[in-house]
Amino acid sequence: MEFFKRFLRETSRMRLSKHCRDLEMKVDDWSESLRSDGSISEYISSIMLWGGPGRVMIKAHFDLETASAWAAHGLQMKENEVDDSVAIDFFREFCNLQAGYLRGVLEANRLLFGISLPFIMAGDSEGMFQELQGNSVETCAWRLLEGNHAVICTAEIEIIDPKAIELVQPALETLLIEEDLKKASGADDGDVEFLF
Question: Are β-strands 149-159 and 54-62 bridged in parallel, bridged antiparallel, or unpaired?
Answer without folding.
Answer: antiparallel
